[in-house]
Write a structure and sequence with these properties.
With about 350 residues, the chain is α/β, with parallel strands linked by helices. Helix content is about 20%, strand content about 20%.
């Protein structure tokens, strides 16, 4: 079975439909010394950033990062030697032959980590989707209730005619305990590992009030729990919804940014106030940010037992090649790579 990178795909949604995924079976050898036809490869297109894990061992089998890149996750078998290979001067019609050997049969867990320059993180309803829609042509769902965004959205942000555009990812809202499986967190925290710069949104006018510092620290704690290196990434602290901001929350965030040594910007995506400054600040951080290590140690690389203990991510998959997933970002595939051609002797 071969995974093929497809830049036109953004999710693993097409692999959620239950079904059997088997490579083609080879054909037996025939008369006149004809070798049997090889089995057809099974090729599954996946979005860039897809990682393949052996479900039983937790081993990372590889990753697809470029369009057209091919990753073999289960090898097919091969045919044995037919009777013609054992003929000799004294035995012109041997009855001896060798059987082929079967292909690999295994369960593969696919996980997607979006490839983006900038990751927008924050509590639910902090204005992440509104920001991405204001800066790019992306149109994520926007509403006045939490957890509006259920799937990550990518948008391309134009920096001007002389600058390379930036890819910004709108990540679904995180809540306390997300790194341990609460809410939707563990399904989407993995995407932050690929982002070179993090834009941390804190609502300046939450419907239920609360402490701005506490809202800031909740996300920081989840990032640190999931992968401590994330807090070392270049990060821009952004106060959102400036058009209806509470003054005390503005003061708290300014002080928090100064203590942490972070740049701080206040914006209103609805009125577009501060968006140009935001693009300038983010662009500067991105220009100085180092490249992100492709394969990082994280929750996603732990064993399947640890993952299932913390989060009910994986759906049941039977031995017949069923495929299922509770999200677009993780899929479990039972694959059977059939054997190749066989050179069994023809029937006399």
């Amino acid at each position: 079975m071969v995974l093929v990178g497809d830049s036109n795909r953004n999710t693993l949604y097409h692999l959620r439909v239950p079904g059997a995924y088997r490579a083609g079976r080879g054909v037996h050898g025939e008369g006149s010394n004809r070798t049997g036809r090889r089995g057809q490869h099974l090729e599954l297109s996946v979005p860039l950033g897809t990682q393949a894990y052996d479900h039983d061992s937790g081993e990372l089998l590889g990753e697809v990062l470029e369009h057209g890149e091919r990753l073999v996750v289960a090898a097919g078998g091969d045919g044995g030697r037919g009777n013609a290979r054992f003929s000799s001067a004294t035995n012109r019609a041997p009855r001896r032959w060798e059987p082929g050997w079967p292909g690999e049969e295994k369960t593969i867990r696919l996980e997607l980590k979006l490839l983006a320059d900038i990751g927008v993180v924050g509590l639910p309803n902090a204005g992440k989707s509104t920001l991405v829609s204001a800066l790019s042509a992306a149109r994520p769902k926007v509403a006045d209730y939490p957890f509006t965004t259920l799937h990550p959205q990518l948008g391309v942000v134009d920096r001007g005619p002389l600058e390379e555009p930036m890819v910004m990812a709108d990540l679904p809202g995180l809540i306390e305990g997300a790194a341990l499986g609460a809410g939707l967190g563990i399904r989407f925290l993995r995407h932050t590992e690929r982002c070179r710069v993090l834009v941390h949104l804190v609502d300046l006018a939450p419907l239920e009030g609360g402490d701005a510092l506490e809202d800031l620290e909740v996300i920081e704690d989840e990032l640190a729990t999931y992968n401590p290196d994330l807090l070392e990434r270049p990060r821009l602290l952004v106060g959102s919804k400036l058009d209806s901001a509470l003054e005390d929350r503005r003061e708290v965030l300014r002080a928090a940014a100064e203590v942490r040594g972070l740049e701080y910007v206040e914006i209103s995506a609805a009125t577009r106030q501060g968006l140009n400054e935001l693009k300038y600040r983010v662009g500067g951080l991105l220009d100085e940010a180092p490249e992100v290590e492709v394969m990082t140690e994280s929750f996603a690389s732990r064993s399947s037992e640890e993952i299932e203990a913390a989060s009910d991510l994986d759906s049941d998959s039977d031995g017949d090649g069923a495929l299922g997933s509770d999200s677009e970002e993780a899929a479990e595939v039972a694959v059977d790579a059939a054997g190749g051609s066989s050179e069994e002797p023809p029937t006399p």
